Amino acid sequence: MKFEARRMMIPLKSMIVGMFCLGAAQTAVACALGNLGESSPTEQAKPLDAVAAASNAFGFNLYQKLVGEKPEENQFMSGFSVFAALAMTAEGASGTTLDILKNTLALPEREVLHAGLSELGAALSRGDAPYALAVANAIWPEKSFHLKPEFLSVIRKVYHGESLPLNFKSDYENSRKTINAWVEKQTNQRIKNLLPEGSLTELTRMVLTNAIYFKGKWKFEFDKKLTQSQPFWLSKGNKVEAPLMYLPYKKQKLKYAQMDGFEALSLPYQGDDLSMIVLLPELDKMADLEKKLDAAQWSLISMQLHPAPVNVWLPKFKIEGGGSIKPALSSLGMASLFESADFSNMFSDPVEFKISDVFHKAFVEVNEEGTEAAAATAVVVAEKSAAMQEDPIRNFRADHPFIFMIQHNASKSILFMGKMVKPAI
Fold first, then answer.
1. Quick one: pLDDT band at residue 391, thresholds 50, 70, 90?
2. Residues 127, 182: Cα–Cα separation, whole Å
3. pLDDT at 384
4. Looking at per-residue confidence, does 386 or 378 come out higher?
5. pLDDT exceeds 60 at position 16
6. Which of 206, 250, 304, 327 is the S-S candidate for 22 at Cβ 3.0 to 4.6 Å?
7. CA-CA distance, 396 to 244, in Å (whole number)?
C-alpha cells in the first residue's frame, strides 16, 4: 500500500485514518525488525494477495467484535485502516509485542508484507480514475525521543509516511489539535476530533496515522425521480419509512448470488475498480449471517457472484460514529499490550511503553449518485508511569437490515465494512 502523508487523489470520497500514540518503556526482549512475521500459508500466495487476505481476515474479526457489542445499531468501520496503522506499529515492535501484533493481524513474512503493501499502494493510486481515492501515512514522535533509523527508513520507503515531531511532554493538548487537524484534512472534514480531550498526555511518545479517502459515483446511477418513501422493516411487524432508491434492470447485468439464507449483490462504481457488495439476509436472520461471516465465507461469496439481470431497491442512508475499540482489540488478543509493550525497534530511548487506547471513527453516505466514506483510527501509546445462462430478472429489495462492504476489486481488499439496521439521512 503506497501510503503517503501527502494526499493522493483518485476521484471517490472516503477515508480511513489510523493513529498510534506511543509512550516509552523498557523492553524486556529484543527482536530484530527483520524477523517481523513468520512463515504462514498466506506467504504461498502473491504478496498482494497475502496482504489483502490478512487485512480482510482481520477486518472480519474486528467487525464481529464491534457488532457483538451493539447488535441492534448501525455500524461502519474500516478494518483496513486499523490493519494498516497496526502494521506500521509492528514495524517498531519487538519480542512478545511483535508476536502478538503479528498473530492478531495474521501478518505474512516481512518481505512479503512490504512487497504486498507496495503493490496495493500502486493499485490504489491509479491517477486517471473516475473516482477519488486518497491514502496517507504520517508518524508523530515526541520531539525529544530518538527514532531508530531502520524504523524511520521503513516508514518512509514502504509506507511513504512523513515524520512530524511534536512536543507531547509540555504541549500535548496543542499536539492533539494538530493531529486532529491533519485527520480532518485527509478525510475531507468528515472525521473531526478523532482524538478526544484527555487522550494524549505528557506521557505520550508517538502517534502513527493512516488515512484513506474515497468518493465515487455508481456505474449505474439511481434515478432520483424513482426514489420513494417506503417501509423499511426493522423486524417482523416493526417498520419505519425510508427513502428507497430504485434501479430497474435495463440490460445492465449486476453480479448477484443467491446463498443459503441471504442474497449478495455487487454494485460497481465508475471505472469498475471498486464496488459495494451488499449482503441481504432474510428478515430477522441477520444474526445467523453474522455468525458465519468470516474470510472463508467471504471467499465463497466472491466465487458465487455472477452477472444476472436484477432490479435493485436500496435505501439512501448515512452512518457516522465511533469511539474506543480497545475492548474489541483486547478480545482479539491484544489485551496485554494495553499494560506493557515492547517498541525497542521504534525508539532507542530505554523506557517502558504501553498502548493506552485505540479510537476509531467512521462516516458513510449512500445516495442516488454514489458513495462517500471516511474512517479514522487512533492508537495511543504512552510511557508507563512505571458465466451464466439467462436468468429470470431478480428482485433485490434491501428493505430490511443488511451488511455492506466497499471493495477494491483487483486486490480484493475490503476498504470499508458496515451494517445498515435503520436508515437515517
1. low
2. 23
3. 78
4. 378
5. no
6. 206
7. 12
- CA-CA-CA-CA dihedral for 145, 151, 156, 159, to nearest 10: -120
Task: Say how far apart CA 417 and CA 135 lie, in whole Å.
Answer: 17
Give the residue-averaged pLDDT of 234-253. Answer: 92
| Nearest by Cα to 390 from 273, 308, 312 | 308
Q: What is the pLDDT of residues 155-204, one digit of tens each?
A: 999 998 999 999 999 999 999 999 999 999 999 999 999 999 999 999 99
CA-to-CA distance for 414 and 60, rounded, in angstroms? 10
Instruction: Please identify which residue in the block is written with the cell numbers 472534514.
Output: 189
Q: What is the 3-state secondary structure of the chain?
A: CCCCCCCCCCCCEECCEEEEECCCECCCCCCCHHHCCCCCHHHHCCHHHHHHHHHHHHHHHHHHHHHHHCCCCCEEECHHHHHHHHHHHHHCCCHHHHHHHHHHHCCCCHHHHHHHHHHHHHHHCCCCCCCEEEEEEEEEEECCCCECHHHHHHHHHCCCCEECCECHHHHHHHHHHHHHHHHHHHCCCCCCCCCCCCCCCCCEEEEEEEEEEEEEEECCCCCHHHCEEEEEEEECCEEEEEEEEEECCCCCCEEEEEECCEEEEEEEECCCCEEEEEEEECCCCHHHHHHHCCHHHHHHHHHHCEEECEEEEEECEEEEEEEECHHHHHHHHHHHHHCCECCCCCECCCECEEEEEEEEEEEEEECCCEEEEEEEEEEEEEECCCCCCCCCCEEEECCCCEEEEEEECCCCEEEEEEEECCCCC
Q: Could you read off the pLDDT of 70-124 as tens digits, one per residue?
A: 888 999 999 999 999 999 999 999 999 999 999 999 999 999 999 999 999 888 8
What is the spatial distance between Cα 269 and Cα 200, in angstroms, rounded to a whole number?
39
Query: Which of 123-137, 140-154, 163-177 is least confident?
Result: 123-137
Cβ atoms within 10 A of the Cβ of 348, count? 12
Strand order through the sheet with 310-315? 228-235, 238-247, 310-315, 394-397
What mean pLDDT is reported for the chain?
86
First to last CA, the chain: 33
